[in-house]
Amino acid sequence: MSVQASQGWSHTSGIILRQQNVTASLNVGQRLELKALHAAAKTTIEYNPKRQPQACVMRLRTPPSTAILYPSGKMIVTGCLDTEDAQVRFRVLRHMEAANKFVRMLSAIVSTLVLKTSTVAIQNIVVACKLGFRLDLERLHYEHTQHASYEPELYPAVVFRLEQPKVVFMMFAEGRVVMTGAKTVLVMQRAFDVMYPLLAEYRKA
Question: Which UniProt keywords apply (predicted)?
Answer without folding.
Answer: DNA-binding, Transcription
